[in-house]
Write a structure and sequence with these properties.
There is one protein chain. The protein has 402 residues and is of the alpha+beta class. The protein is 38% helix and 25% strand. Strands 6-5-14-15-16-13-17-20 form an eight-stranded mixed β-sheet, sandwiched between helices. Helix 1 packs parallel to helix 4, helix 1 runs parallel beside helix 8 and helix 8 packs antiparallel against helix 9. The longest helix is centred in the C-terminal third of the chain and has 32 residues.
Length: 402
């Protein structure tokens, strides 16, 4: 098949690859162009929510992903000094999802599973090209022309930006990426130290308040197979460069749990947190999904999951368009279903999660913790809370939009 009869997907992260696989199951051909030479294994997302696992199960990749991750039946918000906590049991969602738990697994594991499945089952339908940087996008009336480095210029019926915060497709659409950048920098550090063996009742996902002066009030501990990921923040008066020094990282980890030997930290990554969104996910034959369309605080683990949900919705929208049904009505519905949900259910909810964990007043923390414990202890309230935080409510609301 000529490239000009393939839907062009820019970016081979989990969003772009889920989109390619879903399109292939629906019989639609695609070409994935990725600037990198291989799947990135940088420290990125590691939490898969129940509805994402349901979607991946329908694509045949949930079971092998679950086998490579940690099933996480509950998560918690915790006070470090005394271990007081609110624990949210995802088992209350057993009537709402086939996967009433979070899965802790690095996102690159999903990407590699999809690559293997595409090669084994959809090699004729999906082409993946690494080392292909798209530099120029020309939007025509009946096609999109793409050119750059690592590939010959081509034309595609549609081009979809799954290429992250600096998306070339979004720039070609001329869209503002409105929003804010939070003032703090987060430092993600990994260690093999078994925190679960020294803290009573620790979950695989923990958002933690602390009064220790090494932090700015909060940190989080998320477990993946063989490692713990600690999300750290600069201390008051500490620059990012200072916080990245080995002695500073060691000081923060020792503040979490003092031990007589240094922590081994194989991976370290600083990042800024943004909340941004475009007003539309589609202009003509150019479309967006994932971080190219929306960015949010990682608190709650909704960014990658929201991108996966975008990809599945977009594939299911493109399929009838490919068969000749009304293009504008269907593709505009994609924006109506996904953009408000991202704004209301992902960005706003992640912002509230961040604000709660940034609270420093001990009395207010105590009030918040009591409220969370009351919610977690009431099955009906807990279910409603988890329907929202697990992104099920947002998906149900989106499905009702015509």
């Amino acid at each position: 098949m000529n490239d000009d009869r393939r839907i062009a997907i820019i970016g081979a992260g989990p969003v772009g690859l889920v989109l390619a696989l879903k399109l292939a199951t629906l019989g639609l051909p695609s070409l994935v162009l990725e600037a990198g030479d291989d799947i990135s294994e940088e420290l990125r997302a590691s939490t898969f929510h129940p509805p994402s696992l349901d979607m991946l199960d329908a694509l045949g990749v949930a079971a092998p992903l679950i086998a490579q991750g940690l099933v996480t039946p509950h998560w918690q918000i915790r006070r470090h000094e005394d271990g007081a906590r609110a624990v949210f049991d995802l088992g209350v969602l057993k009537g709402d999802t086939a996967h009433p738990y979070r899965l802790q697994a690095e996102q690159w594991k999903l990407s590699r599973l999809i690559l293997a499945k595409l090669a084994a089952e959809h090699a004729d339908t999906v082409q993946i090209r690494f080392g292909c940087q798209v530099d120029t996008v020309v939007h025509g009336a009946d096609h999109v022309a793409l050119s750059g480095t690592g590939f010959e210029p081509l034309e595609a019926p549609y081009a979809i930006g799954c290429d992250g915060a600096r998306s070339i497709i979004r720039r070609a659409m001329g869209l503002d990426f409105t929003g804010d950048t939070y003032p703090e920098t987060t430092i993600l550090a990994t260690t093999s130290f078994p925190f679960h063996e020294v803290f009573e009742g620790l979950s695989n996902v923990n958002y933690i308040w602390t009064r220790h002066p090494a932090f700015s009030g909060t940190f989080s501990l998320l477990r993946v197979p063989g490692l713990w990921r600690a999300s750290l923040h600069t201390a008051p008066g500490e620059s990012v460069d200072q916080a990245l020094e080995p002695a500073a990282i060691e000081r923060k980890l020792q503040a979490i749990h003092p031990k007589g030997t240094p922590y081994e930290v194989p991976d370290l990554r600083p990042y800024r947190i943004h909340q941004r969104i475009v007003e539309t996910y589609r202009i003509g034959r150019l479309l967006l999904a994932g971080d190219a369309a929306h960015l949010n605080s990682p608190s709650g683990g909704m960014g990658m999951n929201g991108g996966i949900h975008d990809a599945v919705e977009l594939a299911e929208t493109l399929a009838p368009v490919w068969r000749g049904e009304a293009e504008d009505a269907l593709l505009d519905r994609y924006t109506r279903r996904r953009q408000p949900i991202a704004a209301r259910e992902i960005i706003a909810q992640a912002d509230r999660n961040r604000a709660r964990m940034r609270e420093t007043d001990p009395a207010r923390r105590a009030e918040l913790l009591a409220e969370l414990q009351a919610t977690a202890g009431d099955p009906a309230r807990c279910r409603e809370h988890l329907l929202r935080s697990s992104m099920i409510s947002g998906l149900r609301a989106a499905s009702r939009i015509t």
